[in-house]
Amino acid sequence: MLALLVRLPLTAITGIGGAMIIGHNMLDGIKPDTLGSLGPLWQVLHVQGPIAYAPGHTLLIMYPLIPWIGVMAVGYAFGSLYTRPPDERRGALLTLGALLTGGFVALRALNVYGDPGPWSAQRDDLFTALSFLNCQKYPPSLLFLLMTLGPSILLLAFLERGIAALARPLAVFGRVPLFYYIVHLLLIDMLTVGFAVARYGRRTPELFAHGPPPDYGFGLLVVYVVWIGVVAALYPVCRWYAGVKARSGSRWLSYL
């Protein structure tokens, strides 16, 4: 889709991507099971979930296309900011980041559009704040994208002044994002199997044959330790691959 969109003017690409992001939550009420034979196609486009394509076999749609194509389109257009002079670019980043972040707060407070799950008052202020921030990622709602892309763009504006020495290793992951994503999936899947065998004596496919056990999983402390451990373990691998990319002229490696 992006290969087709890049043939359009930049304003058109931005408009199409923005319309997908802003408007796709209007389609939340359309359910695949109401569309008959077109239901699986609608899942691919907009609804996360499994598609049964043969007896005993399913295809899990994790990333519905409509919102993510919109994100890719506006991301492509966003890259044009980096052709501008530094001061002008920083001002544009600050303005855009503030507008998106402020838009999230205002729209979420109204609680009328932008996410399938409205927030509500909880037992205390902390859990009410968590409810406010609890937006749908699969597929990404308008509010999820506003609350993640807005602060990220503000951060880019502040990073225009330079990166602290302690933070520079993080740039390694930014040079090989897709490579990191693929490798980290393999690693965490291996860890999941290992944890399942160690705790239950069975691999995860057997463990989940009738749904996960009631006590499956770990607390946040273990999750954070594993998360930091995975990132640290993949740093030397990503640094090596970043060097491979830098020395290679391969077009294919530029995508990974």
What does the secondary structure layout of this molecule look like, with pairings?
Elements (H helix, E strand, L loop, with lengths): L1 H4 L4 H14 L15 H8 L2 E6 L2 E5 L3 H14 L7 H25 L14 H9 L8 H18 L10 H6 L1 H24 L3 H4 L12 H28 L3 H5 L1
Antiparallel strand pairs: 1-2
Structural features, described:
The structure is a single chain. The protein is built from twelve helices and two strands. With 256 residues, the protein is mainly α. Strands 1-2 form a two-stranded antiparallel sheet. Strand 1 (49-54) and strand 2 (57-61) form a beta hairpin. The longest helix is centred in the C-terminal third of the chain and has 28 residues, at 220-247. The two termini are 18 Å apart.
Task: Give the SSE string.
Answer: HHHEEHHHHHHHHH
Number of helix segments?
12
User: Runs with pLDDT <50, length 5+?
Assistant: none
- Biggest sheet: strands, sense, closure? 2 strands, antiparallel
Radius of gyration: 21 Å
How far is the first residue's CA from the last residue's CA?
18 Å
* Helix percentage range: 55-70%
Strand order of the largest sheet: 1-2
Write down the overall mean pLDDT: 91
Beta-strand fraction estimate? under 5%
Helix/sheet category: mainly alpha
From the spread of the alpha carbons, the general shape counts as: globular
Give the total of beta strands.
Answer: 2
